[in-house]
Amino acid sequence: MDKSTFQAYEDEIQALEEEIRQLTEKYEDIRQESTFFSNEEILKSIKSLQRETQGETKGHESLSDLKAELESLESDLSFLTAFTGFHFTSHSKKTVEKTSNGTVQKHRLSGKCHSLSFQLEFQLLEMQNNEKVSAVISDLSIIMESREDSNVSKFVSSTEERGDLLTFFRSLSTYAEWYEHRRCTFLHFK
């Protein structure tokens, strides 16, 4: 075998190894990605499960248990949505780096609080030391309809600098609730 043929085979092997590596990474990303599902998607999944388990007597028992659990989860979710005003429309996460003592994940989250929509993007570093897990948020980016309110823009900027998600959600909940009240009041007088 001459050198050019041998080199062609070597190049093909390297190309295939690179393609395998890329496909493996893509598979891992898809596998780790999580998404909040809408009620329609949940109902489609239930119907699909029902079709798969038709005719199995054991399946009917477990199916009724699953339905009861799903109804319980849906009622809990609707209670929390009504209580907080938050409705999350999508969430995704991607593992950026994984070491023996920590994991860095990139999260994207979008939703609405009452009538104000928002999008968050941040990195979460989880470290484990002696059965204790700690988490640190970095690279927080908040995109929000500020409604031309400079105070909201200032608040979003300071929250991004501090990386304080808890304060963001608490403040957004209160602000969005009162924003909705103001909007309804002004519509009433128009």
TrEMBL record:
A Pfam family this chain is assigned to? CENP-P
What UniProt keywords apply to this chain's record, in alphabetical order? Answer: Coiled coil
Name a biological process GO annotation: CENP-A containing chromatin assembly
- Bilayer-spanning residue ranges: none
| Entry-linked InterPro entries | CENP-P (IPR027801)
Coiled coil where? 6-83
Q: Which organism is it from?
A: Nicator chloris
Q: Which GO terms describe its cellular component?
A: chromosome, centromeric region; nucleus
What name does the UniProt record give this protein? CENPP protein
